[in-house]
Amino acid sequence: EAEVAQSPRYKITEKSQAVAFWCDPISGHATLYWYRQILGQGPELLVQFQDESVVDDSQLPKDRFSAERLKGVDSTLKIQPAELGDSAMYLCASSPGTGGGTGELFFGEGSRLTVL
Amino acid sequence: AQKVTQAQTEISVVEKEDVTLDCVYETRDTTYYLFWYKQPPSGELVFLIRRNSFDEQNEISGRYSWNFQKSTSSFNFTITASQVVDSAVYFCALSEPWGNNRLAFGKGNQVVVIP
After folding, report:
1. Looking at beta carbons, which residues of chain A come within 8 Å of B96?
2. B105 and A40: CB-CB below 8 Å?
3. Distances, alpha carbon A13 to alpha carbons A16, A44, A82, B59, in Å
4. Average pLDDT of the residues of chain A
5. Is residue B80 pLDDT above 70, yes or no?
6. Contact predicate B2/B104, CB 8 Å
7. A105–B99: do the CB atoms touch at under 8 Å?
8. pLDDT band, residue B55 (cuts 50/70/90)
9. Is B86 strand, coil or helix?
10. I need a labelling partner for B87 at 20 to 30 A (CA). Which of A81, B19, B40, B69 fits?
């Protein structure tokens, strides 16, 4: 069964260091999402791509976070410099649709970040 | 703005008991979609059910059932005859109908099924 792949599964870093997460969506899925999930909370959308274009990055802290999906397939989320408050699970999801709010999102297992 | 509230934080049940999770939502849209997702300890969010705002028919799918009441903005979810494998965090979510599939999640309910 096709899956959304994410790496690394776990990352421990010191504050002020740079960190990057990678996501490979299900083949053929046009839409890719990055969500952040703080412990004990529900996921919150950071950025959404439609193919290689950013559709929504209104909740992305752009002073330290960046995301790209250069060829419209896999994606990288970067944090530089990391802060203590960035400790969270970073979830990637994809969906086949081009919008419409009706579709099911397929999530990866997430990348858990701990900032010391 | 959309908002999803899941009041209970942790619910413990003995295996084979039923467990009901409450979800209350807020939206200005007349057309929207509601979801329940399951997050096991592995971390991956798994889609369980979806319901659109025009369909208030309550259904049963295996051991899962849901009660959607538009009049009270509630979308409750029941697991019948719970099993240990049902232990997970369950999230209720709401999405905008047009545009981008953006989901607004509640805080989740931790369900612990005791053998």
Report:
1. 101
2. no
3. 9, 22, 8, 46
4. 91
5. yes
6. yes
7. no
8. confident
9. helix
10. B69
Neighbours of A4 (CB within 10 A): 22
- Cα A71 to Cα A42, A49, A67: the distances in Å are 30, 11, 13
pLDDT at residue B86, rounded to an integer: 96
Residues 6+ apart with CB under 8 A from B79: B18, B19, B20, B63, B64, B86, B111
CB proximity A8 to B under 8 Å:
no
Q: In B1-115, which ranges are E strands?
A: 3-5, 10-14, 19-21, 24-26, 33-39, 46-52, 60-61, 64-69, 74-79, 88-95, 103-105, 109-114
Q: What residue in B sits closest to A96 (Cα-Cα)?
A: B101
Among B39, B47, B101, B107, most A C-beta atoms within 10 A, so best to mutate, is B101
Residue type, B6: Q
**Per residue in A9-43, pLDDT tens?**
999 999 999 999 999 999 999 899 999 999 989 99
- pLDDT tens digits, A51-86: 999 988 989 999 999 999 988 899 999 999 999 999
**From the candidates B33, B45, B48, which should be mutated to test the interface with A, based on the most A CB atoms within 10 A?**
B45
Q: What is the pLDDT of residue A4?
A: 94
Instruction: Mark yes or no for CB contact A48/B46 under 8 Å.
Output: no
